[in-house]
Amino acid sequence: MKKFAFLFATVLFFASVANAKIRRVGFFASPVSGTDYITFAAAYTAAANNDTILIFPNNSVSGTLTKKLTIIGPGNWLDPNSTPKGNANLQAFPGIATISQLVFDEGSDGSVIMGMYGGNMYIREDNITIKRNRECDIYIASLSPAGTITNLQVLQNYHISLRTQYNNNCSSTNLNFSNNFFYYFNTPVGNTYNGNISNNVWAFDATQNTGELNGGSTTLSYAGIIDLGAGAWLLQNNIFLSYTNAAAASNYNYFTFSNGGNSVFNYNLALQSTAIPINWGAGTGNVITPIANAANVFTAFPLIGTTSADARFQLKAGSPALTAGAGGTAIGMFTGNYPYKLSTIPTIPTIYSLSSPQGNNPPGNTMQINLSTRGNN
User: What are the residue boundaries of the structural domains of the chain, listed by start?
Assistant: First the structure.
């Protein structure tokens, strides 16, 4: 429909940087030479360092990056009528843009990707930012010869997984995983890691057929051990809710840590359990909240009700997590330095309402258009 041709078009100049160019993949309106491309591969071939590539809904990203680029999709959970619900008034068009497989290789230092859905991302270069994406698997990839990956920033993602290839030759330093909803986290022993794991959420409910009757498995974490790979991590202000039974003596805790002896645990919160209790390492201020608080931590957990897929993990009024941080501050994915944004909406202005009171066939040669925009920083 023509009214949606304006989506993303208005952000062209907002997303630009000096001496860089905006390129678009799958734009709805008539293509502009040198700006619009049918495929990501074509846009990538034409792009230079520091360019931005906007990926429109129903398009995909795949390949190996050897350039410094910013790749921006429309976000996720944009349809308020989906099951589970998305969030209203964020984008005029509710579609998604997907990742098949993306390798950040030598030369992609400083690249950013946001607003995308699914797929595998392999990190083989420094200073990569993975921000506001949904259901992506991130691999700290093997390096040959052995090398170091530094300053990987994984921020504000939903249902994200961290996995590392078993290579025994990768040193990863200054890693930052903040304000994400995690599905899976595994950094195997044999590599070297240090960094920050802060203001994230892990949550699993085993009482509703692994979640299929209660929001779907894509709104819950993997029920398994969190492997810290003997890394020197600082884990702070995270929430770990593993709920299997309303009785503390029977509540099974899936979220325990392996190879965490070199890490520091501060001001984290977990749900009470006597069946394999969570094994905090050295640190301070960690809280085990009573099993009676299982439904009082988040807005819509363990039952999602009519809440959207990601808004269910906002802190509930009176939540123990509101004062669990240092000095009585709030913890979790919606707090801290990088508060999670609903629907992983990218950090560019968007049109969230677009219509014409004259309909699709106005009289004469003019057409009145009403639109509403918002910033998403």
Answer: 135-346
